[in-house]
Amino acid sequence: MFGTSSYRGASQRRSVALTFDDGPSEATLRLIEYLAREEVPATFFQCGANVARLGAVARRVAEAGHELGNHTYTHRRLCPRLSYSPNLLGPATVLEEFASAQARITAETGVVPTLLRAPYGLRWFGLAAAQRELGLHGVMWTTIGNDWKLPPAGIVARLLRGLAPGAIFCLHDGRDIQPKPDIQATLTAVQELVPRLKDAGYGFETVSKMLA
After folding, report:
1. Which residues are catalytic?
2. Mean pLDDT for the chain?
């Protein structure tokens, strides 16, 4: 009803997928520079509005070899907070959110995403139809870092508790579609997390490679 989604990858390989939502932001370049030094590929679920604002940054993410996914255009909640909310999104609006993001990401980067992630992980009626229409596979996560509210140590501890082969970790290189968000906690956490995962014998894959 709400579309097929993957929460983890194959467990045969000792690898994890780092994913980042809500970007690109002005701080994304700092993140991908660190990932490049550590030779870590990641998957970035980008918002169309942020791509429109920071097209050059979105292109740099793709040029660095990372995977791009679709995270809607405006980061709207697809699922209402209350069942009687007057702001129910119809299937046409759900499709428009993803179709607009798909078009913007492709126009700015030359990459056609094959994956989507619903904002806040909240799936709703119309999502399955949008996935079929756009040829997108849904991706959730094994563990989310709550990096918009936790300090770096808390983020790392939370993710390590969910560590297992095939884990998909969700972090954020933006904050909704806000300009110049503060993601320092995320950056610090990633710089602590990556060495610890390597020391534990884990490698890193994009989501598509992990699911394949």
Report:
1. 21, 172
2. 93
Is the bond preceding residue 24 a cis peptide, omega within 30 degrees? yes
Residue 84 maps to which CATH number?
A: 3.20.20.370
DSSP-derived secondary structure letter, 144: E
Helix locations, 64-90, DSSP H: none
Burial class (CB in 10 A: 0-12, 13-18, 19+), 201: exposed
- Domain with 168, as residue range(s), is 5-211
pLDDT tens-digit profile of 4-49? 899 999 888 999 999 999 999 999 999 999 999 999 999 999 999 9
Using the CB atoms, write b or e for 154-177: b if 16+ within 10 Å.
ebbebbeebbebbbbbbbbbbbbb
Split into its structural domains, the chain has a count of 1
Note the pLDDT tens digit of each residue in 114-155: 999 999 987 877 899 999 999 999 999 999 999 999 999 999
Helix (H) or strand (E) holding 138: strand 137-139
Give the global pTM. Answer: 0.94
